[in-house]
Amino acid sequence: MGINRKFFFDFVRRQLFKGRLRQTQVDGLNFILDVWEASYARKDDRWLAYALGTTHHETDARMQPIHEYGGRRYYFRMYDIEGDRPWVARKLGNIHPGDGVLFHGRGYLQLTGRDNYTKIQRKFATDLTSDEQAADRVLDPEFAAKIMFYGMEKGVFTGKKFADYFDGDLARWKQARAIINPHDKPRLVAGFALDYYAAISYTT
Q1: Are the beta carbons of 114 and 99 closer than 8 angstroms?
Q2: 42-72: per-residue pLDDT in tens?
Q3: CA distances for 98 relative to 40, 48, 88, 117, 192, angstroms
Q4: pLDDT tens across 165-184, in order?
Q5: Angle, nearest 10°, between helix axes 186-199 and 45-58?
Q6: Residue 114: CB partners within 8 Å, gap ≥ 6?
Q7: Is 111:138 a contact under the CB 8 Å cutoff?
Q8: How is 172-197 classified by DSSP, letter by letter?
Q9: Please, is 183 exposed, middle or buried when counting C-beta atoms within 10 Å of its C-beta (0-12, 13-18, 19+)?
């Protein structure tokens, strides 16, 4: 069975987008739903809802893979080994000058750091690390959705994964923010995810 997309879009338009969805938002949501239905439909629907809530927050409700806000100077300061936070750079695997800019956040969930780009590169056998053009492949909507679901299912980003928070009777919506960033608005993201969960309905 597929997700009832008419019900889904009617609900999220009203509940999460103030009554109006741009075509780019519809397209981005459809890419995510398509990848879910193709590869994850037998999994827990709360995983999908939490991924959508994460995307809603990480893309500022644009629902398209984006570059992290801030620009090249900001990326250098935040993530480069020669920037303002070399300890963060090392944690991300950004050990070479220039890595902070090259491996800034991209995608639906802001894939960040040489280590994470390398993990995804190995999984999908796709060059993401040779140069900026390669790294920008993370901005392809279908690929970005695959990265998101794989990374959140397997605990690629922080060691925490979907099943740590959603499994049987276990439902820890606020705590699940640790899959990406436990310090970044966990309550807000949980609220988005719960609204998306309410929107998921199946045809018969």
Answers
A1: yes
A2: 899 999 999 999 999 999 999 999 999 999 9
A3: 36, 35, 14, 14, 35
A4: 999 999 999 999 999 998 99
A5: 130
A6: 92, 93, 94, 95, 96, 99, 102, 103, 129
A7: yes
A8: -TTGGGGGT-TTS-HHHHHHHHHHHH
A9: exposed
Beta bridge partners of 67: 106
159: how many CB neighbours lie within 10 A of its CB? 10
C-alpha to C-alpha distances, 171 to 12, 32, 47, 155, 200, nearest whole angstrom: 21, 22, 10, 17, 16
In angstroms, the CA 22 to CA 99 distance is 34
Query: What predicted TM-score, i.e. pTM, was given to this entire model?
Result: 0.94
Give me the amino acid identity at 189: V
With contact defined as beta carbons under 8 Å apart, do 40 and 2 qualify?
no
Q: What count of other Cβ atoms lies within 10 Å of the Cβ of residue 12?
A: 23
Mapped to the 3 state alphabet, what secondary structure does 101-156 carry? HHCCCEECCCECCHHHHHHHHHHHCCCCCCCHHHHHHHHCHHHHHHHHHHHHHHCC
